[in-house]
Batch of 4 targets.
Target 1
Amino acid sequence: MNKKLPMLSLVKPRSADVEPLPEIEKDRLIRILRGFGIFTESTAKPYLVRFTEGSAAYAAGQATIEVATHGGGSTFSPFVIEQIIVKFKLDRTHFLEAYAGSHNT
């Protein structure tokens, strides 16, 4: 009785006309999100990053998400970036514009 379970996704599938998200370096994503008022907190594990909305210190009622890096802790996958965008209700177009503008910084 080896039934295959359907995959569940936290993120809605994107339509073909939506620009795909890139893999982004950890420091660069932190800089981009800081521009949206989203800050990081330390975690017990070096490959995990906690993003918190509003201030550097967590307060009750703030949106927060803890996500894993990959590539030895140096990058975030497009799937993880999509989760962050959804969690903090960021406008995808504004996020991609901030990403494009962060190339030279």
Note: The longest strand covers residues 48-53.
Target 2
Amino acid sequence: MGMGLIGIGQQKRDQAMAGFGEVARMESNRNQAEDTLKANQEAADNSMKGTMTATGAMLGYTTGMAGATAAATAAGGAAAGAKVGMMAGLPGMAIGAAAGFLFSSLF
């Protein structure tokens, strides 16, 4: 003889609970993958900001240093030109770093 009404109900409940458990596992896996993707994107963004900031600083420093050295050398003496160039490169570096960071945040 077949199962009774209570047995069939328990079997259906067990099947439903197994289905809910599978759905919960799938959702957990999806959430974990989404969190990993967000963390990787944030790490890539931070890496790009660092690269752009360093590149801007380098370009600003060398541009400021070259311009000031040329002007000071023309005014008189290579040693004086080198000193002025080193001091003038620092503001250029700061401006370049800020510009690089800004561009990396915008794009």
Note: The radius of gyration is 32 Å.
Target 3
Amino acid sequence: MINEKRIVSVTVNNEAFAVDIDEPMSIKELAFFLERNRSYISAMKKAGFEMPTNPIKRQCFASLAEAWAWLENNPDFTFNGSYRS
């Protein structure tokens, strides 16, 4: 089975980037492509977004596709870590 990449165009600050949405990204990279700050991603983690740690690099990683899916499945998530009622 050939592992096909899912490349999409993501626009950040009026600049387009070709991104493999299944590629593991760091908190900093996810924050960049979601156009949020790193604290926003950390709040997502505290609210249940899973970012496994790579023991060699000692960083957390998750794909852009996983982040989008989590945000879609958690529409009441807010930056302050609470959920809207």
Note: The first strand starts at residue 7 and ends at 12.
Target 4
Amino acid sequence: MALHLGEAAMVGSLEGVVEDEMKFLKKLWTITGDLIWTIVGSVIVIITLSGDTQKIALYLTLTGGMLHYIYKLLDGSKDD
């Protein structure tokens, strides 16, 4: 069964979307791998704190992590 021109274009564009998703997931995995010791250390510190200090440390850790992910995802350099 032969594909029509429109169907072939759709299949090609879907392959491009899947490839882009895989690149994105690979980049997320790499960023997480680069941060793993920081994440583990932050969790250990947060567990040892209590009260307001613990909440502040948790918020700052989450905010810093999110900002780092956003920066690395929007970074234009090619390190794939």
Note: The chain is about 85% helix and 0% strand.
